[in-house]
Amino acid sequence: MTKNKKNMEEKFVDEEINEDLPEEESEAAGEEEDNIEQDVARLEELVAENQKLKEDYLRAFAEAENTKKRCQQEIDKNNKFAIANFAKSLLLVADNLQRAIDAAHGSDEAGESCEALLKGVELTQNELTKVFDKFDIHKMDIMGTVFDPNFHQVIQEVEDKSKPVGTIIAEVQTGYMIHDRILREAMVVVTKV
Q1: pTM of this structure
Q2: What is the extent of the structural domain holding 131?
């Protein structure tokens, strides 16, 4: 059966049914058909909107994942090369140390050799201090202070009744701070009773 023939038969059946029904029921049936058509149209709109939202969500999710991967790559790269400026600054210290060694080997007389070596080492220490200052690394000034386990590590206790218990009387290894954090604890000798 062709589509037109089928539609005509349905129309004819509807007309026959509508003729047999009172006018009010016929109008109600027509309104019901209109409501069904509106519901079907609304359902199609909602399905299309749902599909669009799903595609938008998948696109946004993929974009977020790509951004996350790019950020992780940047973090990894930054972590890998974070100390590049510090290392570059320390190269000057390495150069000065090499110059001091070369000066010690190059001199004929022992006195001249020691003097040149001392001068080279002092220059190296000055350069290292400049690098530390540039990166806000500084020594802890702890002599004569009271022991603090957050900043100091005791390696020896010595009896000394002239000073209060726990007073730092010697520094075996210098402690350093970077900004406001501990870079290395100071190794100290403290008094005991």
Answers
A1: 0.51
A2: 83-135
